[in-house]
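Can you make up a polypeptide sequence alongside its tokenized fold?
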Amino acid sequence: MLPRQLILAFDTSAAHCAVALFLDGKCLEERAEPMIKGQAERLFPMCEEVLENASIKWPNLDALAVCVGPGNFTGVRVAVSAARGLALSLKKPAIGISKLEAMGLGSQGKSTVVMDARRNRVYMQNFQDGKATDTPVLVELENVKKSITAIMTADDINWELFLNSYTPKITLPSAIATLAINKMGKHNPRPAPLYLQEPNADLPKEQPVVIL
């Protein structure tokens, strides 16, 4: 008999805050709220609401799962930092999951996850029957074959460029939880942001005061 698997997954890599709670491979609850900002303030309350609805306390969790990107620089950091902090305080494993792998989960045949990376570039990763066949890359949009079977979110600005495109088969928080469940019991490095390009966060306009 497999050991009990109670896992909390969350994601703030884009303009949303999403949480899923899984018990033994089945989703107990999933939530996703669109938001451009405020994920850092909303993430913990949303997690607590999901746990409370299932009458589960934080220490009852067996593992945490978090989307490590690629995605919004600040959003990825919010979720990864939360996962690390919870893992440390709860003494539970935290498992990082690539957003591209989560998007490709459940797909059939040969396909490519495509995700807008701004500045006329996209993130790409190839899949065969839902399993990655290579590592993710950052590609200039003009160099991408538009004839590929592309897996994309419905609101991706590049959706119309591809002849064959469809949305992920599994919702993002559920896919993150599912992939993490498959990694439980194995050696997993501490979650770290998956950055395929340099962060473009603006530097402070004012320099700090020099203390003599």
User: Anything to note?
Assistant: The chain has two domains: 6-100+170-183, 107-166. The chain is about 25% helix and 30% strand. Helices lie at 39-53, 73-90, 99-104, 172-183. The longest strand covers residues 26-34.
